[in-house]
Amino acid sequence: WERPDGRHIRQRLLVVANRLPVSAVRRGEDSWSLEISAGGLVSALLGVKEFEARWIGWAGVNVPDEVGQKALSRALAEKRCIPVFLDEEIVHQYYNGYCNNILWPLFHYLGLPQEDRLATTRSFQSQFTAYKKANKMFADVVNTNYEEGDVVWCHDYHLMYLPKYLKKYNNKMKVGWFLHTPFPSSEIHRTLPSRSKLLRAVLHADLVGFHTYDYARHFVSACTRILGLEGTPEGVEDQGRLTRVAAFPIGIDSERFIHALEAPQVQERIKELKERFSGRKVMLGVDRLDMIKGIPQKILAFEKFLEENPSWCDKVVLLQIAVPTRTDVPEYQKLTSQVHEIVGRINGRFGTLTAVPIHHLDRSLDFHALCALYAVTDVALVTSLRDGMNLVSYEFVACQDSKRGVLILSEFAGAAQSLGAGAILVNPWNITEVAAAIDQALNMSHEEREKRHRHNFEHVTTHTAQQWAEFFVSELNDTVIEAQQRTRK
Ligand code: G6P
């Protein structure tokens, strides 16, 4: 990035996401302890050398007092993070309400909540108002921290209004928006009462990105059918102004997983797990406990497999890691009890005094424990009902270079478009089909597993998170330069 005075500096990237990549715990009136959570986005940006990334987002905690806010801001600044403080009411209406009870299920084809469809639209309206208010609060923090030449990269369905507010503040800001979930068919999107406003707000960005070509196509169709705008191969055009729309499939930092397998504590853990499950094939599911992940359907398919193949009962175990999430949203609470009920029933039905077929954990595992689990797994079950990409499938593949386990993957996860040739693809709603895929996976020859694994490993190690981030930001820079050149002509 060349400054007006001719000096070259690393371009600053302001990454704006609902959640900061740290968890904050208050230790005293003005002291906080922070832990970096290395999710996909964090590892993607840690590896990018061209930019100097700064994060703007919610720290996930309510901090009503000024002393606490100041202390937290200071602690976060050391991690290059800038907080947006949201009070409890906003979190309730914006995050639990509009984001996670309306947009999230809708974008994953689960429809709008029944009560909002039937009853008066009052709660829907107030949640939408809170959504805009929260987006405005993010925009204010971005605007305060923005310096000329910065690139602003907005993330996910929480912040669809952000491009609009940012461009209102400063029309010259380079603004990109990336959606980490699917963008649904325009017929689904059109059921949303605020369908047009959200599309128009996103279109203020210079570049709009999705994980797959299909999601990008759905977005462009929604703009043409709902807003009557022109869709071009480049994006969406409105009164001569083009918003570029394209697919940028994310990846993982595969090296981090591959190296972790060599760590002594991971090797030790692998040895323990092998002893613990010796004589049994290990099947693994790792999901946030979310309705889009299809956990009940997956467990029912496993039950069907055991029912049809009783000789496997004491020779296979399913380890399901279900990470609690959005626990204040009633739908998620219902799901937790539903999953517990099914697991209990199946373990009662097929368990013996010495072994149970399903080990279900309601918690997350640390990175090293997770790597060890991936490494000892014979069959991974990623059977989301819908999923933007699903990086668990990538992580599993990265950890399997000695075992060559089989990946059973939902055809409705974005990852199906990249790992489809190596995985067994299934329709997660079809329990009979998933049960048959389990059978196929457990009986697959070594040659077949080798061939499939090679394909997937090659993809996962060559399409990394760093490349994804670099590609998006360089496209965003180019898009803005091209637009400037067009206006000059
Ligand atoms: C999905 C979303 C992310 C979100 C994550 C965890 O992957 O795309 O934006 O951060 O879920 O959900 P949470 O509500 O806990 O942030």
TrEMBL record:
GO biological process entries: trehalose biosynthetic process
GO function terms (MF aspect): alpha,alpha-trehalose-phosphate synthase (UDP-forming) activity; trehalose-phosphatase activity
Record EC number: 2.4.1.15
Entry's Gene Ontology cellular component terms: cytosol
Keywords, ordered alphabetically: Glycosyltransferase, Transferase
Family according to the record: In the N-terminal section; belongs to the glycosyltransferase 20 family.
Name recorded for this polypeptide: alpha,alpha-trehalose-phosphate synthase (UDP-forming)
Record organism: Sesamum angolense
Lineage of the organism: Eukaryota, Viridiplantae, Streptophyta, Embryophyta, Tracheophyta
